[in-house]
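Quick one: structure tokens for this chain, please?
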Amino acid sequence: MAASIYPDYPPDLTPEQRKHLYISLNDWSIANGLAVRPSSNFVAESVDPSGVLAVTTPVTLFPSLFPENSFTHAKALQYAYNALYVAISQNEEWLGEVIQELIEVDDFIAKLWEIHLAVKGEGYVQVISPLISSSIEQLAQGLSTAHLRYGKSKSWPPLPLCIIFVVQSPERNIFDQRHVEYQLQTFGHAVFRLPFDLIKSYTFIPASNDLRPLIYTPPHSPSISYEVTTLYFRAGYSPDEYTNSAVWSARLHLERSAAIKCPSILTHLAGSKKVQQVLATPGSRHLERFLSDPEILDPVRKTFSAIYPLDDSPAGKEAKSIALDPERSKGFVLKPQREGGGNNIYRGNIPPFLKSLGDERKWRGYVLMELIEPPAQRNSIMREGVVKTGEMICELGIYGTCLWSHNTKSGDDGILLNSEAGYLLRTKGRESEEGGVAAGFGAVDSALLVDTDERGFRK
């Protein structure tokens, strides 16, 4: 889908047209919540000490061309991906074997697993589990469904119910979260934001109540306490947030509670790069364990890029050979067990990075993935008031919402909600390696669907 197929796209603009587009795009983005708090590099803290200013999220000026058949196919597969990760989250034995390989080399993963074992040792298992990654309306609907599935208050006397967003503080990427909150409030749900490092300051679990309700007292309204039905984590995914033992204690505190966690520890771990690698290593038969229907299995497998371990298995030894070769490594990216942008090591930087780790056992905390090379096209990105034009590449992600029950005692077991829930198209400069929008590398885009054949050429 090269630029030559559509030589007149995107169109050239007159200065007046460009000015009009800049103003319209900026205003629309701010008005619709496509905004972030400005970085300190753009607006000094001394200029905005109260943190009240906002700027447009990095966005493209034009929608990027995207093959309609690939777009439709990706959306259709989201249901299978939801079901896959439900199955992985519920197979504790298999997941534990995979995670065990990381425990010796990744303290963050090890401590998350330790929390799971501690809660399991107390005899508590989360009955309702949500897996929600979606656009605003669908995300609000998914959280609302979880909130309602919680049922009546487990406290006596009964307390009013609420949903809590566990958030970073400060949070630049706040406005999309706010729109989800506002949507939930239109459903009649009480919603509060609680910074990750203040969890135990404002919540507790009554020692005398075996049902373990999580009680929250808002600092701005201490006369009313609420029972938390649902915890939506917008924080807690990076080891940088776990600054001391008190923060780890707070995560354990939440996991012990009856509140529905989105995600639970097991669902969090199921999304690790190591799990992706075990499923996607060429020749792996693990995917068949979870998806037995060939009509679902084969299309899902075709979406995988080859991912290799860095261990002593035959695949791991081959991956080490590739990773240490300055030429062969140019087609790969090295990924740690982390989320968000800025963590990956690319191409020729892989060999010296691995050597810098020293102890080769530490390599097991990484996976080696074949780089995806999408076709480039011209576009412009507006970031903090500056527009840059050039060759761009984009990456499509399909959102999904899933809610499932595993209460085998009552027989209420299985997927309760499984839906495709919108998409995110992230675009970055062709020369850029990282792509996270919130991390400052990519831009939010939209898809202009075009009719192409299997080679990407216009029909």
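The chain has a mean pLDDT of 90.
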